[in-house]
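Support request from a user on the community tier.

User writes: "When I paste my structure tokens into the form, the page sometimes reloads and wipes my input. The last time it worked, I copied everything first. Here is what I submitted, just in case something in the input itself triggers the reload:"
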């Protein structure tokens, strides 16, 4: 016995010497934690240094940001576990059903800690440095045991571009001694907020959608391991204390009883650690667990324990800030909060390690026998627009949701019809796609496909609706019966046009969806002239919809190089089927050379940004131009727009924002023949302008309402509203990200390719009536959303309002779009509308 004790004492000594050999982050970086902001590359260097010098740590890079910064994580565990990591990873996937193989292999909790998804919540990466050093130096009670039984994964910074923007700006405004006075410029960030990534996306709204490079690459790695616990470290207002689990209501119904229980356990563990340090905190408030966009909910729907931690501070807090309470909040204080929560998360995971694993496996395995979704099968009709199907399947792949072709072709089932939003039936056809709820991702299938997610409380932090058939505008059905999968393999059709032997008179592309938009912009970029037909027509025994594209040889006689191969190549790249024809004479409709076949021109597009412009709205449009249609654009800042000659541009885009100071300039641009596209709040620019039809419509509606409104006498007791209900009362006026059915004037070129109806996310609370003069292109005729929460007053006011309208001003045109049709870049169906408007 003595010998063994001596041996283990020696071992501990050796370990400690090893641990002491590793420089602390303070030694390595040359500053004490919290005394200055570490830049991202310095943190990466430290993480790599520790991995190079400790058997307890390995580092892997998982990609690059848009601005070229490295994304990486460390795995921290005992050397034995790290040597076995690949086996541990595989067992985890096999035991949950994601990977084929022999079940029962060794698993241990994979605890994933992610910091700084919001760049200006700047304590995150600093806390990650301390967490890593503490683990590797085993200098916190329990660490040695934790590392024997768990693997800790640390992502120091999910949003390096935002984080460095914050740190560099702060350093530029920094004084020798931090000035805690809130008036000092070091507490004021400027536009755009460093919270966001390069394209100004909020990466904590992107987990399920994965539109951004940072998220997509991170989740590819996440899915390779499937952690059991994921904690996401944030900051909230500097006046708040600290938030940890349990989360606030509403909780999504797909969250399991064990996940509820573990939330409670984590809350208790954190409370013990915070109590010892006399730190203030709160639970069950503000941060709910409902919408799958987040770093807590998405992991929850992927079987893990997902947590949000919020430290009081944020970009405003800098290195030190005087609080209203009279205390000075320092970066060092904030590091302590997230450090404690990091320790608490690992501790509770270690203490509950066995149940964590068995319940995790069960979460996925149970989906095979007992799906949690009330509908066993979702059918996506195979004849939907190809680009929409391709986008949907890409999203399902990213979320590890399996799908196949449906069998039982010809059979009819009772079903919920998403597009008509009511019970109906579906007849299975060959090529229909089946998403079965019987699969490891059963919970996620429920979350993504349930027509209307149930909330027990409507005070949600973000959206309340996201059912995928509405997002992609797809004919789809939810069926309670179990529809078997077909044995045939689902192959996505690739389009392969070939250069015809005889030179055709023209090529025609039917307007099906977004692929045609991409094709058209590719042609315009190649200086190939293209027409769009305003009416349906038939030629050479084929029927074509409104908006179909005509690429006539006669329009392109002066093309450099081979016209045919250029057209064919662009069509193949865009996935568009071409119909070559040998005549311009149609069988039905207007001839190809008719005035109804209007020539498209290549517009010069300007996008406006700057202080007062919504970062999210601006970012989506920037991303659309650059990444979706890859079309040249110019971004013009509001601060110098008055010195720019706007006559150089055909289209000027105003994202939601305030433009009152530039009103004259923008109005002149329209009067001279420009096209101005206004989103959300930007509409106010013309809503107050007496000469517009929009203003007249608003005034007319006001008068109608005054007549209708019954005045409540001041003595009426309905005025006696309770103070504690104030927040809830305000909800009356808003839509918490609910989905509305949009009626379309399908004869208007802006609506081509969308059909007669479409769906849009309503997030703004402004309502605009139909224009008596002008074009009411897209509109809302119902009070009720098809999915999600809209308040009582909102529902009353939204009925019979516009979603998209346009009117002429002078020689130009203004287009009003009330909400983002391409919401957060995942509302893919809106791309067709944007394309139609920009390239009229
Ligand atoms: Zn945050």
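"...and here is what came back when it finally went through:"
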């Amino acid at each position: 016995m003595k010998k063994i004790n001596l041996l283990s004492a020696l071992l501990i000594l050796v370990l400690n010497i090893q641990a002491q050999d590793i420089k602390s982050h303070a030694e390595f970086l040359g500053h004490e934690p919290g005394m200055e902001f570490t830049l991202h590359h310095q943190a990466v260097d430290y993480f790599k240094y520790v991995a190079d010098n400790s058997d307890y740590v390995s580092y892997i890079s998982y990609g690059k940001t848009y601005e070229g910064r490295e994304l990486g994580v460390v795995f921290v565990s005992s050397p034995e576990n790290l040597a076995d990591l690949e086996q541990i990873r595989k067992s985890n996937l096999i035991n949950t059903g994601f990977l084929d193989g022999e079940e029962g292999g060794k698993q241990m909790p994979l605890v994933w800690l992610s910091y700084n998804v919001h760049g200006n919540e700047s304590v995150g990466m600093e806390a990650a440095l301390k967490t890593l050093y503490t683990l590797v130096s085993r200098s916190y009670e329990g660490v040695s045991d934790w590392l024997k039984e768990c693997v800790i994964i640390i992502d120091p910074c999910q949003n390096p571009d935002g984080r460095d923007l914050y740190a560099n700006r702060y350093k530029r405004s920094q004084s020798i001694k931090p000035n805690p006075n809130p008036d000092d410029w070091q507490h004021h960030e400027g536009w755009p907020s460093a919270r966001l990534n390069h394209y100004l996306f909020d990466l904590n709204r992107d987990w399920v959608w994965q539109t951004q490079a940072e998220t997509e690459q991170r989740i590819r790695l996440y899915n390779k391991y499937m952690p059991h616990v994921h904690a996401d470290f944030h900051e909230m207002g500097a006046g708040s204390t600290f938030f940890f689990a349990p989360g606030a209501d509403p909780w999504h119904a797909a969250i399991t009883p064990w996940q509820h229980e573990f939330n409670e356990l984590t809350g208790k563990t954190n409370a013990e650690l915070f109590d010892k340090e006399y730190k203030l905190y709160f639970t069950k408030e503000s941060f709910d667990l409902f919408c799958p966009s987040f770093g807590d909910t998405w992991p929850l729907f992927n079987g893990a324990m997902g947590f949000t931690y919020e430290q009081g501070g944020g970009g405003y807090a800098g290195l030190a800030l005087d609080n209203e309470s009279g205390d000075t909040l320092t970066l060092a204080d904030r590091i302590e909060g997230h450090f404690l929560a990091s320790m608490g998360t690992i501790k509770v995971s270690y203490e509950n390690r066995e149940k964590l694993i068995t319940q995790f496996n069960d979460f996925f395995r149970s989906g095979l026998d007992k799906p949690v979704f009330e509908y066993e099968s979702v059918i996506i009709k195979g004849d939907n627009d190809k680009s929409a199907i391709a986008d949907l399947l890409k999203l399902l792949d990213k979320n590890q949701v399996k799908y196949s072709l449906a069998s039982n072709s010809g059979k009819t089932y009772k079903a919920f019809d998403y597009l008509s939003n009511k019970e109906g039936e579906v007849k299975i056809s060959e090529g229909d796609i089946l998403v079965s709820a019987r699969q490891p991702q059963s919970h996620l299938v429920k979350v993504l496909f349930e027509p209307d997610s149930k909330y027990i409380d409507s005070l949600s932090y973000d959206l309340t609706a996201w059912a995928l058939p509405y997002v992609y505008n797809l004919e789809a059905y939810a069926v309670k019966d179990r529809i078997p999968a077909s044995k045939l393999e689902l192959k996505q059709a690739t389009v392969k046009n070939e250069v015809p032997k005889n030179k055709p008179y023209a090529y025609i592309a039917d307007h099906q969806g977004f692929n045609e938009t991409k094709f058209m912009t590719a042609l315009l970029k190649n200086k190939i002239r293209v027409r769009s037909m305003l009416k349906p027509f038939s030629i050479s025994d084929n029927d074509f919809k409104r908006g179909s594209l005509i690429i006539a040889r006669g329009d392109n006689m002066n093309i450099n190089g081979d016209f045919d191969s250029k057209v064919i190549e662009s069509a193949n790249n865009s996935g568009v089927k071409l119909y070559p024809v040998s005549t311009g004479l149609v069988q039905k409709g207007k001839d190809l050379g008719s005035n109804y076949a209007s020539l498209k021109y290549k517009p010069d597009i300007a996008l406006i940004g700057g202080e007062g412009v919504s970062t999210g709205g601006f970012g989506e449009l920037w991303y659309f131009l650059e990444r979706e249609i890859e079309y040249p654009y110019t971004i013009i800042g509001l601060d110098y727009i008055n010195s720019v000659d706007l006559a150089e541009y055909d289209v000027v885009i105003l994202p939601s924002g305030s433009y009152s100071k530039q009103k004259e300039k923008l109005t002149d641009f329209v009067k001279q023949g420009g096209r101005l596209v206004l989103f959300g709040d930007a509409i106010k620019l013309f809503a107050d302008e007496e000469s517009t039809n929009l203003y007249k419509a608003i005034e007319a509606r006001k008068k109608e309402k005054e007549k209708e409104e019954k005045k409540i006498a001041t003595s009426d007791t309905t005025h006696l509203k309770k103070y504690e209900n104030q927040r809830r009362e305000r909800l009356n006026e808003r839509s918490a990200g609910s989905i509305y059915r949009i009626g379309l004037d399908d004869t208007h070129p802006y609506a081509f390719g969308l059909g007669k109806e479409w769906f849009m996310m309503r997030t703004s609370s402004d309502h605009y009536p139909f224009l008596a003069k002008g074009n009411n292109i897209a509109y809302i005729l119902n009070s009720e959303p098809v999915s999600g929460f809209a308040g009582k007053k909102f529902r009353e006011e939204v009925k019979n309002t516009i979603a998209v309208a346009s009117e002429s001003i002078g020689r130009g045109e203004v287009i009003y779009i009330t909400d983002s049709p391409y919401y957060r870049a995942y509302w893919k169906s809106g791309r067709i509308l944007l394309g139609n408007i920009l390239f009229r």
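Agent notes: The reload is a front-end session timeout and is unrelated to the input. Confidence is low (pLDDT under 50) at residues 10-15. The longest strand covers residues 735-744. Escalated to web team.
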